[in-house]
Amino acid sequence: MGGGTIGGWAACFLREAGLSVLLVEAGTLGCGASSRAAGMVRAQGGTEAAVRLGVWSQAFYRGQRERYGVDSGFVETGYYMPCFSEADVATARDRIARQREWGLAAEWVDPDDVDARNPAMAPGRTWGASYYAGDGWVDPPRNVLAYATVLATSGVRVWERTAFTGLVTAGGRVTGVETSRGEVGCSSVVLTGGPRLAAVGAAAGAQRIWSGGTRHQVVVTAAHPGLAADRLPMVFDVASGIYWRPEDGGLLWGMSNPDEPPGEAVDFDQGYFARMRARMAALVPVTAGLGLRRQWAATIDYTPDHLPILGPLLAADGSPVAGAWVAAAGGHGMMWGPGVSRAAADLALAGTTEVVDVTDLGMDRFDSSGRSRLAADPIALPFPAQA
């Protein structure tokens, strides 16, 4: 397993269950998107799986300090998803109804209340918004520090700068893993890897894992009185794929380009940023002309249907490899990470989990072209159509 959020917390959970655990990481703990994310933690998903993973993860973040003595810095502020058309309103109201059926206390907020609660936004722009008070964000580097601390204090062995190079099997069951430091015997393995998970699967001799990588960009503006935290709750403009939240007196916002070919990329795309900056200035006028304190890009993982992958590893012939499990957050490592990690650990321990129904979340939901039999989660960043 890798040393990002999914692999890190899964290793912690498995160690808590009494197992001897080795975490293998090609780089260093959190060196990928886990330390470069924006940290948004949203339970307002468009599918039941998304909602349940978000709710579980938020509860975990809230309880970290009491459980471990460290935490990921979760801040609960609520999250607005504004509507800009009559069609948006109908979609949002339907989504809220389904979310409430799944136990999430989401609510509809009328246009005047959206303006009153979001003083930094341009008034009179929205037709209202969906909202959930329990949503918030974590501090990504602090999250890496949290699971690194738990790994160290609980006795998980961590091999950094060590590549996973293959599985060892006998009779269709895992008996070990091959690494750049040698072979290690084991009876169970959880394969993670974020945007490189497909390569991990290939090294394991498995069917293609339909998880890819794509560039995601984040900026933080200079501080401004109009961007004080009490004027600036979290907002996700689903239509443009822009989200924002307060950050040290300024505004943190992120974006992904759906027209960009998939692949690893960490260079900042100034052209796409300029296009999205115009949209941001129209929605939050104070950002027009406001300087930036930070800007960065990271490669994040995604799946074609924007849903996680949780299930057995499938060999090249389609048969499950006993003792081998796959875990991917589908581009939602901070948002679903602890829930996906807990579910993966449960699968490795008992073959089942109560976090989320994983019946249809395995590798087998994709055909040979990467088409999923599941409807895509509609509340997601604008990822590419295929992995």
Architecture overview:
The protein has an eight-stranded mixed sheet with strand order 5-6-4-14-15-16-13-17, sandwiched between helices. A three-stranded antiparallel sheet has the order 2-7-3. It contains eight helices and 19 strands. The chain has two domains: 5-49 and 57-70 and 140-211 and 304-365, FAD/NAD(P)-binding domain (3-Layer(bba) Sandwich), CATH 3.50.50.60; 75-135 and 213-299, 2-Layer Sandwich (D-Amino Acid Oxidase, Chain A, domain 2). β15 (242-247) and β16 (250-255) form a beta hairpin. α1 packs parallel to α5. The protein is of the alpha+beta class. The model has no long low-confidence stretch (mean pLDDT 95). The longest helix has 21 residues, at 48-68. The two termini are 21 Å apart. It has helices at residues 5-16, 48-68, 86-101, 111-117, 140-154, 197-203, 270-283, 333-350; strands at 22-24, 40-41, 75-76, 79-82, 107-109, 129-132, 136-137, 157-159, 164-170, 173-179, 182-185, 189-191, 212-221, 234-237, 242-247, 250-255, 292-302, 309-314, 320-328. It is globular, with a radius of gyration of 21 Å.
Element layout with pairings:
Layout: H1 5-16, E1 22-24, E2 40-41, H2 48-68, E3 75-76, E4 79-82, H3 86-101, E5 107-109, H4 111-117, E6 129-132, E7 136-137, H5 140-154, E8 157-159, E9 164-170, E10 173-179, E11 182-185, E12 189-191, H6 197-203, E13 212-221, E14 234-237, E15 242-247, E16 250-255, H7 270-283, E17 292-302, E18 309-314, E19 320-328, H8 333-350
Helix pairs in contact: 1-5, 1-8, 2-8
